Amino acid sequence: MAKKILIKTFGCQMNEYDSNRIFDLVKKIGFEKTDKYEDANCYLLNTCHIRDKAKEKVYHEIGRVKKIFRSKQKPLVIIAGCVAQAENQEMLKREPYIDVVIGPQSYHKINDAILSHIQKKKKMEETEFDAISKFKYFRKIKNKAGKVSSFLTIQEGCDKFCHFCVVPYTRGPEYSRPFQQIIDEAKYLSNNGTKEIILLGQNVNAYNDGKNRLSNLVTEIEKIQDIKRIRYTTSHPKDMTEDLIDLYKNSQKLMPLIHLPVQSGSDKILELMNRKHTIKEYLYIFDKLKNINSKIEFSSDFIIGYPGEKEEDFENTLSLIEKVNFINSYSFIFSARPGTVAFDLDVTEKKISKQRLETIQNKLYENQINRNKLFKNQTINVLVENLTDDKTQTFGRSEYMTSVVFNGNKEHIGKIVPVKINKFNRTTLFGEIVEDLDKKVA
Ligand code: SAM
Ligand code: SF4
Ligand code: F3S
Q1: 122 Cβ neighbours under 8 A, 6+ residues apart
Q2: By the 8 A CB rule, do 143 and 20 touch?
Q3: Is the same domain home to 162 and 147?
Q4: Which end of the chain is more exposed for a tag (fewer CB within 10 A), N or C?
Q5: How many domains is the chain built from?
Q6: Each residue of 399-411: pLDDT tens digit?
Q7: Ligand 1 environment, Cβ below 6 A
Q8: Are residues 137 and 124 part of one domain?
Q9: What is the CATH number of the domain that holds 10?
Q10: pTM of the prediction?
Q11: Residue of the CA atom closest to atom 5 of ligand 1
């Protein structure tokens, strides 16, 4: 019988990258991908632990799989990702339907775990922090994503221990992949059609292999001719070093959108969160980058209703949004996570947090709309990623990551084309290609 795996991914881009790499691995032992539950004989859930109900979501999903397979042979059920790391053996105890629990730093052991289960029906739990072996092993398995825009993880884990966050516990200590390993993967991706690389890390700008920083990596990747765009995420303000800021003076390929989470506009809250920087320091980075290139825009993450957040603190967050004019940002109500310092603190009243969230989201959405309005009747460069689902148009992204839908065709995929924008909504720009492909395409 053909081996078919269904991989479902929750959480951040690093989980997406991992899911793709896991598939590259399981292909080696004969698995094909499927998106139909009924066809799968292996079901892998790559989980996220960042906010509450994460664990319950997993059990809910398994309940769904159980129902689908009620009268059929049970699939091999694997729980990967950050919930797997946090809950480990507990999951096997609570839900006998689960066969393998594997944490994010142990994916190189996944084929052994699968084969051992198939042959010996042995349940497995692998949650060691072993990023070095993981990436050493991944190096031998080529990254087959081959997408126009591809993720490339350069750094894992976090040593910052913000008081609200589970990442240092689920992804372990900071580890930077060897420089050459990353460059080799970037070249491989480029040879397979990638035009944009998005460098990933929980603290991507903390990258440090002992000799090189993120700025050195970007400079080296810029030399790969067919890579046209470079992005990196997620950055911490504390690691926004001068060498990285200075890169924006001459870089031709770094995109002018910087995702720099601030979480709150209040120094008091930043301190309570253990964020290790002030608003003044954040604005110093903002001013410096804007002085280098006024086209640079910022996006951010915000946590609303952190324990101790008073109206005045929230007002400070709104003023910061006013000043920086963030686009494409994310905001969430604080969620108390077991094992973190903030778990036991008194939370802000739910009703107040909800009101504040609504206020901030309205403001952020307004910024997004206002930014998109500026593109109307402008011609912008779009990196074309794909045909739209109905295959009648093409889909790409602006330099600011905004989705663009226009009247292109298959030939445009992988190219940067000029598109005149004639319509927009909050999340998408719509337009028409302006020039003859032969004359204008980059
Ligand atoms: N390393 C990044 C940084 O320092 O900003 C963030 C990585 S975290 C995976 C992504 C976002 O999740 C954070 O920026 C934060 O806004 C949000 N987040 C993390 N823990 C949270 C919690 N306990 N409650 C609500 N949001 C949370
Ligand atoms: Fe979490 Fe980011 Fe803080 Fe690390 S720096 S603890 S990943 S929020
Ligand atoms: Fe979630 Fe883990 Fe990413 S907790 S946000 S999947 S690092």
Answers
A1: 116
A2: yes
A3: yes
A4: N
A5: 3
A6: 999 999 999 999 9
A7: 12, 50-51, 164-165, 167, 202-203, 234, 236, 261, 263, 301, 303, 332, 334-335, 337
A8: no
A9: 3.40.50.12160
A10: 0.94
A11: 261
